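Human: Note token order:
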Amino acid sequence: MTNPDLTRRRIRKRVVPRVRGPVELAAGRRHPEWLWVALRGDRVTARAGWWSRPGDPQPALMDVFDVADEADGVRLLEAAAPFTATPPDYTRYLPPGWRAAGTPWMTALEKTGARLFVERLRLEWRPGTPIAEQSGRLTFRAPHDAAELIGLMALVLEGTLDAHSRDELSRMTARESAELQYREELERYASPHAWWRVAVLPDGEPVGFVISAHNGYNPIIAYIGVVPAHRGRGYADEILAAGTRLLAEQDYPWVRAATDVGNRPMAAAFARAGFVTFEHQVDMIWR
């Protein structure tokens, strides 16, 4: 084995990068010591790579793992283990129907103790797709402050179908989870925080929110939620339309989003809004 050439679950969910070699190295998202290959003679039989946000001292996730030889893939991860005693989660992008192509990489990961945690839909809205007009039931404004948004984020975690959120709620309170996501993800987006919107009723009562952002790779619907007291009334469609429209007005070539395969209500809302599934995402964990 030789060493050549989106920390938290919120990073894994929202900012899973493509491999861009020198660009990622120059940006500080990758480091040479985080890029490994297994060799048999001059032939590469497995490769692995880890990623972080710029400046973070430890990798946030493993997003490169390919094997031509399953056993060498296992040995490669065992050799790389000293630099990351607690393995970051692994994330992989795959086409729909990916299981039919075979999964030697998954088998190798399972032999090191990893297990499938969740499969997600990667979604895309494209210019020319209609965006629903607002009904007039809701108006939209910026959050008053971080405390208001964190409070709404904590509320929408009630009854969540998101696997990462459910796992987190087994270890902390909804408020703690919301604060952590705000500090580790939302607050760090370089795109304008003025894009964030709270949906309110005519009397000013908040119904939900949508976080439109650019994560350094793509324009995204980073987070959308409806508070429990107002679910089941179609507000999610209007809130999603507002967030999508804001990004469409920036003339981006697409708007991306993601949701768990098992979160059928959210997947249906994205489908109604004209988002199409262009890839799947698989998250595996070592816990």
Observations:
- DSSP finds nine helices and eleven strands in the chain.
